[in-house]
Structures are given as structure tokens and as C-alpha cells.
Amino acid sequence: MTATASTASVETGTALAGERSMAWAPWERATLVAVVLVALALRLHGLAQAPRLTDNADELYFAWYGLNLILHGDAYTWSYLPGYPSTTILHAYGTSFPLVHHSMDHPPLFGLIIGGWCWLTGARGMLQVTAVQVRTLPVAFGTLSVLLVYLLGRRLLGPGPALFGAALLATAPGAVLVSRQAEPESLQAVLLLAALLLTVRAIDGRAGPWSSAGLLVCCLAAPLLKVPGIAVAGICAPILAAGRRWRLAGATLGAAAAGLLLFALYGWLVDWSLFLRIWSDQAATRSGMLSGFDFIAAAAGINRSLHDGWWLLGWIGLGVLAAQGEPRRELFLVWPAVAYAAAMLVLAAEVRVEQYAWYRLIVYPSVELGAGWLAWEAVRRASLPLLTLLLVLGGAAATNWWLGGGGATWVPNPFLLVALMAAVLVPAALLARPSGWGGGAERGAGWAVRLAHDSSLLRRWALGAGVAAVGFMLIGNVVESLLLPVIFTHM
């Protein structure tokens, strides 16, 4: 049977993917282990200090939800939605919480996971919950995401860009800070990456029954963690359809629908009228058309502003990747992030998206992979515009708090900044000079002309400067992540 154009477009990268699935070199394994260990160490450092437990009350919401559901059969936790018939004010942890019986704000699965962990680690009452207990599993999820995003990136981009992306996800202070949070998106990120890896296998014709079952479990579980998790199936199904895997595409959508139906069944078994009132309240929180824009562009943090240059750089990197027109990269790397931004436009409230960075957790790995690929290309090609973007966004994010000593404001020396940028950009500018340019002006340039014509020396200079710049930025990421307990108070 002759393949259609659309089928061929998805499958043209199969041979390329096979080439990139080459045997692992010892240095690659060692580097990946080091990156994952650094990711774990940074997420554990200052775990209870940045952010503080009450900076994001959602963490207590899920812990109390699950703990009380396990101990008393009642998801007794806080909520500000008006649909509950009564509330009880609890004064704890230096703040006040309006407690409600049988919370329906979110599906029960993530609350059971976090509350169950708190119970397993000794908590038997709401006020016995600690920040370390609540955040232990999210740290594990965030660390696992570093490994999974490398595996995905390696298949589609090769080891070098994948390592860059994994290193950024492991060390970027914004990613470290947000991935500590006990939010459903932390586990949804793992499910999305696993689903994408399983979808790659399905497109390549290597998926057996267990792989397909694993994909369906990911699509079923994601909306049981939080309703926007239906996006996991919404992301994978079009990829499968593009590869003419029609049955599996339909099954993923069916699994997501089953997850929503199970949540509705839970609401019906507990209190159907309360379920309907609460989800009417949830729908009423939506406003405007800028949720998708804010998801990408707002300085969202944890009830504070978080200016994350790596996040913005990643979106630019994904845009450049999409413009190259390679179907597999577009579908597996770019489509997940833009599809989830579209889901935020449809499902999320502007006021929340522009304030809470944990909404981004599910696609943080994909976006950081985009940043890693752009950084790799900037250094490999000695690209003047890409290197400049890398310095302006990633470099600034990696050094602002570090060089400023963790203070709220500081005034960098403009001459020093120009000198540092010139050390990286000058060789790239000389390499960018097209042949035939210059004319008579070359006669007064002397050494500069000779250097420009010695392309091997110039390329070594450009490569060395680029590698040094990226290394400096990664060190800055690590330092700032270690300083998060100090930095967070000034955000």
C-alpha cells in the first residue's frame, strides 16, 4: 500500500530517530547521572524554606484532602469557593483557612497520593503535616522529569542538545523552585513525558500491548490528578492520528474521558448536588482571552513575580524548531507546549495563570528542552543573534541574583557587561561576515582582517567563548538555586 503524504511526513524521521538512538557512550551515561543527581540535590536544598509552606496553600489543600479522606472518609480541607453550605475557620501556620467538608475543587487522586505519603511518614492530624513531608514526592517527580526529558530529547535532537535541556531543567532556579511544589502538574509532567515516549514507540511501530496499556494509563490518570490533565490525551491523540494509529488515538481520548467520568462518579457517590455547585463555581472563575498569553509571557511565580529568562528562551527555541519544518520535532517537542498553552486559554482563569507558575510545570521540561536546543545551536553555529538571545535571557536569569548578592536591587557596571558580552559575541560577529564584504575598508583593519580570514582560529575562539559562556550560566543557575531561601524573600 502506498503511504499518503501525511503518513510519510510523520514517518520520514523514523530513520533519523534510529540514528539518534545510538549506543550510549560512557561519558554520556556519567554526565546524565551527574545531571540527575544535581537536580535532586538542588531540589532538596532549602526544601522547607523556599517557598514557605503557606506561600502556596494548595500544598496543604492536597495534604489535608488526602489525609482526612484516608483517616475519616471525608475530604476535609480548605476552599474559597462559595458553593459549600458552610465553612469552619482554622487558624494554623500563621494564617486562616476556611475548611469545608467533602471538597470537590479537584479530583481525588493527587490528594490521596500526597495525603497518603504524609500518613505513611507519620502524620495523623492536619497540623502534623510538614513542608518536607508534602514536598518529598514532588521532588522525586521533578527529578524523574529530568531523566525523561533527556530520553525524549535524545531521540529527537541527539545527545548534545538533550543534555543541555536536561541540565537547564535540573539547575534553572525557576524550574527548581516551582518543581518543589506539591501540585498535580508535577506528576502530570511525568505522565506527559512518559506518554510522549510511548507515543514515539507507537509511531515507530515498536509498541507492544504493554506500551499501549502504559499510554492509556497515563491518559486516564492525568485528569484524575487535575482536570486540565485531559491535555495529555489531547496532545498524544493528534500525533497518533498523524501517524495513522487511529485505534490507539481514539483509545487515548477514551481513556481521558474515562478519567473525567470517574471523577464525576466520585462526585455522584459523595454529593452530586455539591459537585455540580462547585464545578459551576470553578467555571465562573474563567475570564478574558489572555490566559494562553499569560501562560507564556507573565512573570508568574508562587504568589510573587518570577522573571524566568530560560522559560522565555525555551519558547523562542520551540518556535525556531517549528520553523525548521521537521515533522517529528514539531509534533513531539513543539506541539505539547503550544497545545497546553491552548488548553490554558480554554480552561484557566487569567488572574491565576499570571500569578501561579505551577501551571507551567507540566510543560516545563518541553520548554527547557527548547532552551537547551537553542543554546546548543547558538554555540555550535556561533550564531550572533542566537548567542545574543542566550545572553539576554538565559545569561541574565542565571546571573542576576548571583552577581547581585541575593539583594533586591543592584546596579551592574555597564562597561563590564559590554566587555563580557563582547568576549562572546565578537568572534560570532566576525564569523558572520559574508565573503566579499568590506572592500577598501579592509586595508585599514590589519590584524582584524587576518584574524577574520583565519577561520579555523576564529571558530576555535567562538566555540571556546560559547562553551565558557554556557558553563558560566550553568554555574550561575546552580548558585542561584542554592541561594533560593535568600532570593525568594526578595521576589
> Could you name the ranges where pLDDT drops below 50 across 5 or more consecutive residues?
1-20
Could you give the count of β-strands? 3
Q: Can you tell me the number of structural domains?
A: 3
Shape: globular
- Count every helix, treating DSSP H or I runs of 4 or more residues as helices: 22
Give a short account of the largest sheet.
Answer: 3 strands, antiparallel
Distance between the termini: 60 Å
Please, could you describe this protein's structure?
The structure is a single chain. The protein is mostly helical and 491 residues long. The protein has three domains: 5-50 and 145-380, no CATH class; 56-134, no CATH class; 382-432 and 451-491, no CATH class. Helices cover 69% and strands 3% of the residues. The chain contains 22 helices and three strands. Strands 1-3-2 form a three-stranded antiparallel beta sheet. A hairpin with a 2-residue loop joins strand 2 and strand 3. The chain is globular. It starts with a helix and ends with a helix. Residues 1-20 have low confidence and may be disordered.
